[in-house]
Design brief:
Number of helices: 5
Bound molecules: calcium ion
Order of helices and strands: HHEEEEEEEHEHEEEH
Distance between the termini: 68 Å
Largest sheet: 5 strands, antiparallel
Structural class: alpha+beta
Strand order of the largest sheet: 7-3-11-1-8
Number of domains: 2
Strand content: 35-45%
Oligomer: single chain
Shape: elongated
Radius of gyration: 32 Å
Length: 235
């Protein structure tokens, strides 16, 4: 009786043959999957030279133009990333508030048309707040006009500024990926410390505050971490 005739009759041999075929197919597949999995985690944990290739974009969260009275801060509350479509898909690494302002002082007196003096600088302070991350920056209108920006980050921007780093891919991601830290509530505050300028005889100056135009934007950083040698090959 030939092997195949035996196989056709013997149930035990049939099971054995099926098992052999199964293992012959399954083992290479198993090792292939195991190897590719090991490779993936190895690239995350292997110390190597990498280039961080990224791009900044800004998403407006709020904007306005308000007269802010001296010593009476403007509170900007109730800002939330829920108002932004697909916010959870963005790597929100920080927030920035840009402020621009002019100078308006009132002059009053019989001799103002002769000599009205000069305005004095106002100090404008902006603060952004998001969870535990608060940042403050101060600017001056220099008695005329001006502007300044306050920026707050919750990732390592120093690393972003480096062109080539010697780290593991996992470490780089943990430093530059916000991992959801940019989601949630935001608020801001702008205050004006107004100063009235000098007053020649017969003319008075007063300064009630200042008109401030502001924009609050989320800072989004899209990145790609490339092995440095791959970058070299591209050149
Ligand atoms: Ca002033
Ligand atoms: Ca003013």
């Amino acid at each position: 009786m030939s092997f195949f005739e035996e196989l056709a009759r013997d149930r035990e041999k049939q099971i054995m043959a099926i098992s052999i075929v199964f293992f012959v197919l399954a083992f290479p597949l198993y090792f292939f999957i195991a190897a590719s999995g090991a490779d993936g985690s190895a690239s995350l944990n292997t110390l190597d030279l990498y280039e961080i290739d990224g791009e900044y974009t800004f998403i407006e969260l709020d904007a306005g133009d308000e007269f802010i009275a001296n010593g009476d801060p403007l509170m900007i509350d109730d800002l939330h990333t829920d108002a932004i479509d697909d916010a959870e898909d963005f790597n929100i690494i920080g927030v920035r508030m840009t402020m621009t302002y002019t100078e308006a002082e009132q002059v009053n007196g019989p001799l103002c048309s002769v000599a009205s003096g000069n305005p004095a600088d106002d100090t404008i302070t902006g603060m952004t707040m998001h969870g535990e991350y608060n940042e403050t920056a101060t600017g001056s209108n220099n008695g005329d006009s001006g502007g300044h920006t306050v920026e707050s980050y919750w990732v390592n921007t120093t690393l972003i500024d480096e062109e080539i780093v010697m780290m593991t891919k996992g470490e780089i991601i943990s430093e530059i990926d916000a991992d959801g830290a940019g989601l949630g509530a935001y608020s801001a505050e702008i205050s004006v410390d107004a100063q009235a300028g000098n007053t020649p005889p017969g003319c008075q100056r007063s300064d009630d505050g200042e008109d401030v135009t502001y924009t609050i934007e989320l800072i989004v950083f899209d990145y790609d971490i490339k092995p440095f040698f791959e970058v070299l090959e591209e050149l």
